[in-house]
Amino acid sequence: QVDVLHYTPESRASLCYVDASHPGRPRRLYAKTFCDEQGSAIHQRFVYFWSLAQRDGDAPRVAQPLGYDPQTRTVWQREVVGESLIDVMCGGAETDWLRGVAAAMAAVHRAPMALAAGRHRDVGHWCDELWRRARKVSRAAPELADQVSEVVQRLVRTGQQLPACEQTLIHGDCHPGQFLVAQGRPVLFDFDEFACGDPMEDLAEFLVKLDPVTRARSGEALAQAYRQAHPAGFDPRRLQWHEAVQQLLQACRAFTFQVPQWRLAMAQRLAQAQGLAQALEQPRIGAHP
Asked: What confidence tens digit (pLDDT) does each residue in 140-195 have?
């Protein structure tokens, strides 16, 4: 039996192959097919982290890589059985998932940058992206055009003044839905968007995509857990800037994905981005003029 999990025409498809004849529970294999050769790099990322997880208890577990078929441009993996991190956050021990996720992020950020396959995301990249998203917001909700333009101007200005950042490997699409928990350890998925960038981007995206209750309860503790796991990559000002960027991206996505009451959601996300952007321009204690 073959089930289609995701399909983007002329780009990629994810399939699940189910062997229901196996005694007990069905066996599953997963295949991800691409329109180009990027599957080879993605397979190598899984090979690296599969090997790392065998010897480093803080590294994230991953689905076991089975191979890459260049003829069909397909990555093959085994199934991982676990519990959704989102469910664990709602009912599990807080310190367990906090430390596990922070350690998993840190392991990605310490991995070889060669795994990014030449992709880079710096402040300049995000400034260009912010203007592109601002145009989308303005078309979808003209009444927000002036506000989103002001927010982007502030973020471009403050982005040029951020503390220096040593780029690392980043996941590039890091949010709670990318994790399972299996045998007490986080399992990380979706290595398609790896790039060289600011590690605070991954942490900011994860925090922004937490549900409001979990964010209020555990957001600061997660940031501190990451700081302990990877002090060289942590900077509160860069984290705040990336959070503002992510809030603006979510404002745009409210329309793109037609979330319920998308106009209200867009306005709320934009207000969050505006507050963070304004705070970044406030004088810092101890800073020289």
From this structure: 999 999 999 999 999 999 999 998 888 999 999 999 999 999 988 999 999 999 99
Q: How far is CA 220 from each of CA 202, 241, 266, rounded to the nearest angstrom?
A: 15, 16, 24
Q: Whole-angstrom Cα distance, residue 144 to residue 166?
A: 35
Cβ(90)–Cβ(183) below 8 Å: no
180, 84 in Cβ contact below 8 A? yes
Cα→Cα distances 205→115, 175, 193, 265, Å:
20, 6, 13, 17
pLDDT band at 89 (very low <50, low <70, confident <90, very high): confident
Give backbone dihedrals phi and psi of 198, rounded to 5 degrees, phi first.
-85, 125
Q: What is the pLDDT of residues 35-73, one digit of tens each?
A: 999 999 999 999 999 999 999 988 999 999 999 999 999
How many residues make up the chain in this entry? 289
